[in-house]
Amino acid sequence: MSGSDLTLHHAMSLQADAALDGFDWPVALDLFDKIVEELRELRAELEAEPADPVRVLDELGDVMFCVVNLARKLQLDPSEALAGANRKFERRYEHVRKYLHAFPAIGDPARLECMEARWQEAKTKEKHGEPE
């Protein structure tokens, strides 16, 4: 098990132990509001002038902890979910990369728009089972 897998497992273990004591959300859907709350706190730290990297890291950790808690409530493995998201990103970004030569230069705001359009194209093809 990798270090990141151990960290995710430790978070799930902490949450499961707390749940045994009754400190738990009744249903998984209840965690959505908590995740949004933590995201708002992270955003507030990012918008602070100047942003404090220690506070930003702390708030990002809270977001991740809540998402792992959601995985636990759904009886899903957060490492497996993240591995799947990594594979999906790789597939879709490979489609974007095929067009790098045709995009505006790095720094041009239109570049990101073009890349996002190709990303959405890859996503649509994937959902319709179209080959790359």
TrEMBL record:
Domain NTP pyrophosphohydrolase MazG-like: 32-96
CDD domains reported in the protein's UniProt record: NTP-PPase_MazG_Cterm
Database matches in Pfam families: MazG
InterPro entries: MazG-like_dom (IPR004518), NTP-PPase_MazG-like_C (IPR048011), NTP_PyrPHydrolase_MazG (IPR011551)
Protein name as catalogued: MazG nucleotide pyrophosphohydrolase domain-containing protein
Originating organism: Banduia mediterranea
